[in-house]
Amino acid sequence: MESVTGASLAQLPDEMFKFILQPVSMPDCAGRLGQLILRGRPAISTPNYVVPTSRGVIPHLSQDNLQKHTNISTVYVPLEDFIEKSHAKAPLYNTPAPNGESPLRQYIGLPDRHLSIFGLRRVPNIPCPAHNTDSSVAISTSVGFRSLEVEQYHEAVRKLKADISTSLPDLINTKVASAKRIEKSADRTRAWLRDFVEDIGEETGLPFFASIPPHETELLSLYLSDLKDEYNSHISGLCVYSPSTVSGLPGALRDIPTICLTDPSSPQAVLAAIHAGVDLLTVPFVTKSSEHGIAFSFTFPGWPQTPNQPLGFDLWSTSHATDLSTLSTNCTCYTCTRHHRAYVHHLLQANEMLAWTLLQIHNFSVIDAFFSAVRQSIKGRTFEDDMRTFSRAYESELPALTGQGPRVRGYQMKSIGRGEPKKNAKAYGKLDEQVQKLSEAESGVASPEGDADYIEAHGGAKKVE
Ligand SMILES: [Zn+2]
């Protein structure tokens, strides 16, 4: 049954965008099933995951591997990845895009079957030292911090034509904020949405989602009532930054899809977000785990008979050096059907980039099966019981990261200033052993002239006159 469609709110041409909610009601659980349909892309069953990209790509997955060996449907692309010093001169804007295609899609070479969601900042991102102002937002580019005019972001949305764009929120960097600052955050987010609607209107013909900053919903009541009454004909969905925001949303805003740009620490945190009613959420922990040699081993809901199983295992561990078993039992991904743990362990030890590719393929296969099982569980109305089973069956956190990952870039890690230890291990040494030998030779300890007699006296080579 089609209960409510996003298109009825968004008034988009020819039902370009549609969100169909399936009627599954569970007491004490806001988790729900839906279908997100955007013309020209395959329908996406929700709840589902969104993969954050880094400078336009999913780390370690080339476009052919992405298509052949994963079921990833949606990617998140942040603007701050592409604009370094000058916003206007960014090559992203000069990409030829014939027939009204999206320059963003052309620039990053995103295959047609993947949905692109566009926002300003990475997930997760580095807090900027500067604050937002009424007309600009602080961002962190690959060459440092800077600010971007709100109008420039709107211009980017208009030019780049991502499948779904999100409006700008005024997010607060500090952990604690005064009531005045929270009020200002709500006011700015509202003002920027108003400008967004005025600047863009129906021009792109593509849906956009209204951002809601992560404050208590009582403090956002004015903004939320505006979303519901004034802007409901313009927005196709909501973009939140904490799953807890969803629980406080008024019923009138629950018929449209909600994406959560968040950094859950574990699959349990993902389940909690789905339980709260999030339809799509980012899962940065998958790439982070792959990069540190962790292979996921969980399934949903798992088996309560064997409690406290690890959620994954560390392939850097030498215990896998001769282990010829697959990464995970019953996994049918490319990695598990062709390789074994010992091989991936060897690749990690040898600093071979292929290790991260194989782990990404496996881990995304596990997370895909996890979401698929969650949807089945909601459909069968057993989601809450299954959540409890999962909590009993698995440890609460992913394994600790012990192994070395790829080189960390400046835009991935905040600098703490002077005296900070090096983020990346030395890739190449100075052949220290050779340097030592050379200095010994120069000092005469092992030079042929100086020690020939010594060598001969000790039963070494004979000196020839
Ligand atoms: Zn696998």
TrEMBL record:
UniProt main location, coarse: cytoplasm
Region of interest called Disordered, as start-end residue ranges on this chain: 439-465
A GO term for molecular function: tRNA-guanosine(34) queuine transglycosylase activity
Binding residues for Zn(2+): C331, C333, C336, H362
GO cellular component entries: cytoplasm
Keywords, comma-separated and alphabetical: Cytoplasm, Metal-binding, tRNA processing, Zinc
Keyword Metal-binding attributed: yes
Domain tRNA-guanine(15) transglycosylase-like per the UniProt entry, residue ranges: 30-395
Cofactor: Zn(2+)
Record's subcellular location: Cytoplasm
CC cofactor note: Binds 1 zinc ion per subunit.
GO biological process, alphabetically ordered: tRNA modification
Annotated Pfam families: TGT
Keyword Mitochondrion part of the UniProt annotation: no
Function of the molecule: Non-catalytic subunit of the queuine tRNA-ribosyltransferase (TGT) that catalyzes the base-exchange of a guanine (G) residue with queuine (Q) at position 34 (anticodon wobble position) in tRNAs with GU(N) anticodons (tRNA-Asp, -Asn, -His and -Tyr), resulting in the hypermodified nucleoside queuosine (7-(((4,5-cis-dihydroxy-2-cyclopenten-1-yl)amino)methyl)-7-deazaguanosine).
Family, similarity comment: Belongs to the queuine tRNA-ribosyltransferase family. QTRT2 subfamily.
Classification via HAMAP family: QTRT2
Oligomer status and interactors: Heterodimer of a catalytic subunit and an accessory subunit.
Record protein name field: Queuine tRNA-ribosyltransferase accessory subunit 2
Organism: Cladophialophora psammophila CBS 110553
